[in-house]
Amino acid sequence: MSLLSRITAPPAHHDVARLVATLLTHRQGARRRAPQALPGTTPRPAGTALPTGPTGLGTSAARLAATGRAREAWRAGKAGEAGEVREAGRVAGKPTAGAPGTSGASGIAGAPAASGSAAVSDDRGIGVPELYCPPALRDDPALAREVNDRLVDWADEVGIYDGRLDRVRAADFGRLMMLAHPDGDDPDRLLAAGKCALAEWATDDYYCDDETMGSRTDLLGSHLGLAYTAVDPSHLPARYAPAWEEEMRQDPVRVALRSGLDHLSRYAEPSQVARLRHEVAVLFVGYEQEGSWRSQGRMPGVREYLAHRQINSFLPCIALTDVVGGYALPASVYAEPRVRRAVTMAATAATLVNDLYSMTKEHDSSGVEFNLPVVIAEEDGCSLREAIERSAEIHDELVRTYETEAAALALTGTPELRRFLAGVWAWLGGNREWHAGSPRYNGA
Ligand SMILES: CC(C)=CCC/C(C)=C(\C)COP(=O)(O)OP(=O)(O)O
Question: Is the CB of 180 under 6 A from ligand 1?
Fold first, then answer.
């Protein structure tokens, strides 16, 4: 008997009815706007605090007051540094960005209960078509700013993106965390997840695909092997350990990965940390795969590329949904094949959003860039515009499949699984909203 079938279905008759209605109207290929909440689940109201500390009668007022005081204190401390830009420069070899905190191009929740993503296009016609994707569930600019400010300070401390911190600030990864984890109100948890994400991005920029940051394909395997030991420490014999420790501290990417994981470990159970390690190891395999195409000068086929985008994906970020939310999905449930299938499809879809939105940036770069439209154009012999449309259809199919399968799993799963699957759905919405607005992808 599988884990899920052992779990009794909740007595949620309205949810079942809503789910059946959703699935009945869910015709393949029909253009319908994605619902804000995963069918069969209820979104938490945007901006509501979650019980990450003690719960029970009389504790919520105390908790809210404490959170508010902590945030006020932080803001007061930061006030003197407002607007500070440490370095003028470039990230990933791209020109200087616009103002930090630029908000998304499309509406955020709070708005209609169901919305889609608007199509945008540049004058070369390589814009992003309307995607089947839920809207972001909340927008809390103050929370985003707080997380982003602290994230940039941390990047400075650990030494990543030295000389390029203005671009990091402008990209606004704090906003990504705020948008993608709408059921997490604790800035420190959002920061911990943001550190892990930025360290993973830095691994990509420094080692894989940005020569201006020192990436070299011939050194990729060696760099990634060393970087992995920052996530899963090597335990060397005593005579080698001190010099090894010194080496670990010499490379900013290793320092960032280790520091990000340390911070996360304050909130994550060992099984959740092990989950992240696994997803990062898989991510690094994906980095290697891309490096192999680069060194061969080979464009992968569409199937190979799609399988790649499942492993070189946002899954390490999505996997932290419960850690940021303050609960723990058991390892055995996370690993259940139907859960894995649904969550990895969502991760691929989220990463195809990156492919679509980063096309303009990559189109302008001098090196070989891999993204789904380019791969499709090559294999199908079609125009880039047509390949973009086909990529959007693939994205939409993955999101619809996630919606259907996750909704069914949520109905029969535990409350943690239901919340996790709803959180992944929300992650998709926040991710698209961030890509639509971040200067990293929007011509700044
Ligand atoms: C945060 C995280 C897990 C990043 C790892 C994977 C990654 C870098 C992406 C999914 C983004 O892909 P890409 O290399 O195309 O990045 P940019 O478009 O340059 O942001």
Answer: no
